[in-house]
Design goal:
549 residues; alpha/beta; Rossmann fold; GMP Synthetase, Chain A, domain 3; 7-stranded mixed sheet; 5-stranded mixed sheet; 23% strand; globular
C-alpha cells in the first residue's frame, strides 16, 4: 500500500519554489566565498556601532585560521566557542572551516558541569570564550579537559558604544594561561591558512541538544545540511538580499547558526547582533539598522511588544518574520499582527534537522485546526518528506495523530560518538522527532505536543498544548504552561502555570472557568498557579520539566 505522504500533497503551496531544492554550493565555506564575491564591500556584521565588511570578515578569519594551524589545529579538529551574540562567533566559525575543522557551539549560560561535559564529549582542542566566562566558569574546567589553548575576547570589542544596559561593570580582562583572540588575529594578519578540501559530508558544527530526555548529544550538522537549510531560508522563507537579518536567537542555537549566520553568509545580507537579548536594546537596534528578516522564539517577539518603548514603527522595515522553537498559539499570532501589521509565520525543526523541516510558505495563510485550535507549523520544506507514524513505524492516514518523522537533506548524519543513540533516533536517516502531531490532506502539519508531555487523566489523553492555547486566549494571560501532576482519583490531573501581562489581573478561579467554558470536562485545569515568570531555555522554550518537578 502506498503511503499517503508519498503523493506530497503540499507541493501546490510552494508558490514557485522548486519542490526539489538543489543548493548551488557543496559546502558552507564555498557558500561564504560566494557571498564575498557577490558583495565584497557590503556589511557582513553589524554590532552596535561596529561594522565588519565581507572582505574584512574574510581577512580576519584567514588570520585566525592561520593562527589556529600554527598551534596544531587541523582538519577534523574541534574549536569550541563559548560566546554571546558577538562578531567573534562568526569569525571563529569561518576560521574553523578554513582550517578544515569543526565548530562546537556552547551555550553561554552553561555552568561548570555543563561546560565540562561538552568539552569532554566533543574533545575540543581549542576554546574561545568571553573573558568574564573564563574568569567565572572555564578557568576551573579547562585543566581537566583535552583543551590545549584558550583564546579570550570581550563583548566590548569590535564596537565602541558599550551600552550600559548590556555592559555595565564589564571590563576587558587578561587571564594567565590564555591568549587574547584579537591580538592573535592581528599577529597573523595577511597570512593564509593551508586548509583542506571540504565536502558536503564533512561536519560543519556540533550542536548540543537540550538534554530533555537524557544527557545532551552532539548533533553532527554537515556542510550539506547547513547549505541546504540556508538555501531554504533564502528561497522558501524569503530571506532575500537587500535587507538585513536580526540576530534575535542565540548564535549557539541551531536557529542562530542557520537562520541568522548561514543565511546571512549565503544571501548575502548583514547580520545584526546585540550581544544578548535585552528588549530595550533590541528595539533600539530595530530603529538603527532597520532589519528586514528574523526568526526567533515567540516569547522573545512578545517581549518586544510588551516593552513600554515599543511602537508599530519598530517593525515597519520587516518583510518576513518567522517563529520557531515553540509553536505559536493562534491568539499570539493575532496579537502580533494587530500590534505590528505583520504576520508572524511558523517554522518547525530541531537541532537534528539543522533548523527547519517545515514552514509556512511565505505569504500563505496558516490554517487553524478546528478541533484542537492549534495553528499549523507549516508544510514540509522543499526536498523533504515528513510523515506521521504510529509506535510500530507505520504511516498513519491524514488527520490521525502520531509521531512526526522527517527525511531530507537537512537531517544530520548522527550524534557525535553515540552510534546507539543515532540508530535509535535516526534509523536509516529518518529522524524520529519525539513530537506528536498530524497532517491534513493539503499537507499542513499540526503539532499536538511532545510524546513525553501527554497527560493521562482518568484514561483520557490531554495534550498540554491545547490547554495552553485556550489559556492564551484570555486577555490577561502573557504565557501559560500545563503539566500533569499525580492525583489519587484520576491518576494524573491537569495543572496550569500562568504569567500575566503587565497591568492586567486575573484570579486562578477566573482562568480555570475560562478553560472550563471552552474545553471538555477532562481537559480543563483543576489546579492553576499564577507566577511572575515561566522557566525557559535561553531560546525561549518553556521548561515544563522544571514546573513538573
Amino acid at each position: 500500500m502506498t503511503s499517503p505522504y508519498d503523493g506530497r500533497p503540499w507541493l501546490s503551496l510552494y508558490q514557485g519554489v522548486d519542490a526539489d531544492l538543489r543548493p548551488e554550493h557543496d559546502n558552507a565555506l564555498d557558500m561564504f566565498r560566494h557571498g564575498l564575491a557577490v558583495d565584497p564591500d557590503g556589511a557582513a556584521l553589524l554590532y552596535f556601532d561596529g561594522v565588519i565588511s565581507r572582505t574584512e570578515l574574510d581577512e580576519l578569519s584567514d588570520a585566525l585560521a592561520a593562527a589556529l594551524e600554527s598551534r596544531g589545529f587541523g582538519p577534523g579538529d574541534h574549536l569550541a566557542v563559548y560566546l554571546q551574540n558577538v562578531p567573534q562567533f562568526v569569525i571563529c566559525m569561518v576560521a574553523a572551516w578554513k582550517a578544515g575543522g569543526v565548530l562546537v557551539s556552547v551555550n553561554p549560560m552553561n555552568r561548570a558541569r555543563e561546560l565540562k561535559y561538552v568539552l569532554d564529549d566533543s574533545a575540543a582542542k581549542i576554546l574561545v570564550c568571553l573573558d568574564d566566562l573564563y574568569d567565572t566558569v572555564a578557568r576551573d574546567v579547562v585543566p581537566d579537559t583535552a583543551v590545549e589553548l584558550v583564546l579570550t575576547t570581550s563583548g566590548l570589542d569590535l564596537q565602541t558604544r558599550n551600552d550600559p544596559r548590556i555592559f555595565a561593570g564589564v571590563e576587558r580582562r587578561r587571564h594567565e594561561g590564555t591568549e587574547d583572540l584579537l591580538e592573535v588575529v592581528e599577529s597573523h594578519r595577511g597570512q593564509k591558512p593551508n586548509g583542506a578540501p571540504l565536502t558536503a559530508q564533512d561536519v560543519a558544527f556540533l550542536t548540543y541538544t537540550s538534554g530533555t530526555t537524557g544527557v545532551p548529544k552532539g548533533a553532527m550538522n554537515t556542510h550539506g545540511n547547513v547549505v541546504f537549510n540556508a538555501t531554504v531560508y533564502r528561497d522558501f522563507l524569503h530571506f532575500r538580499p537587500g535587507g538585513s537579518v536580526l540576530g534575535i536567537a542565540p548564535l549557539f542555537h541551531i536557529t542562530g547558526l542557520v537562520g541568522h549566520i548561514a543565511v546571512g553568509l549565503l544571501a548575502p545580507m548583514p547580520l545584526v547582533l546585540a550581544f544578548r537579548f535585552d528588549p530595550a536594546v533590541v528595539l533600539d537596534a530595530l530603529i538603527e539598522h532597520r532589519p528586514a528578516y528574523t526568526v526567533g522564539a515567540i516569547s522573545a517577539l512578545n517581549a518586544l511588544l510588551l516593552h513600554p518603548d515599543f511602537t508599530r514603527d519598530h517593525f515597519s522595515s520587516f518583510r518576513s518574520i518567522y517563529s520557531g522553537g515553540a509553536a505559536i498559539a493562534p491568539a499570539a499570532e493575532r496579537a502580533f499582527k494587530e500590534a505590528t501589521g505583520i504576520t508572524v509565520h511558523n517554522v518547525y525543526g530541531l537541532t537534528e534537522t539543522t533548523s527547519p523541516m517545515t514552514g509556512a510558505p511565505f505569504g500563505a495563510q496558516q490554517p487553524v485546526d478546528p478541533t484542537s485550535g492549534a495553528l499549523s507549523v507549516g508544510v514540509p520544506v522543499p526536498s523533504t518528506i515528513v510523515r506521521v507514524q504510529d509506535d510500530a513505524g507505520r504511516d498513519l492516514p491524514f488527520g490521525e495523530i502520531g509521531e512526526i518523522v522527517a527525511e531530507g537533506p537537512q537531517v544530520v548524519a548522527g550524534y557525535w560518538g553515540k552510534p546507539e543513540e543515532t540508530a535509535k533516533s535516526i534509523p536509516n536517516g529518518a529522524l524520529h522527532s519525539g513530537d506528536v502531531g498530524f497532517m491534513n490532506e493539503e499537507g499542513w502539519i499540526f503539532i499536538v505536543d511532545r510524546k513525553k508531555d501527554m497527560i493521562n487523566a482518568s484514561g483520557y489523553k490531554v495534550w498540554p498544548r491545547e490547554v495552553e492555547d485556550v489559556l492564551a486566549e484570555h486577555p490577561a494571560v502573557r504565557e501559560a504552561a500545563v503539566v500533569g501532576v499525580p492525583d489519587e482519583k484520576r491518576g494524573e490531573t491537569v495543572k496550569a502555570f500562568v504569567s500575566l501581562k503587565p497591568g492586567f489581573s486575573a484570579t486562578p478561579d477566573e482562568l480555570i472557568a475560562h478553560c472550563k467554558e471552552r474545553m471538555a470536562a477532562y481537559k480543563y485545569p483543576r489546579m492553576l498557579e499564577i507566577i511572575d515568570e515561566l522557566p525557559k531555555t535561553v531560546t525561549g522554550k518553556i521548561l515544563r520539566r522544571e514546573l513538573r518537578d
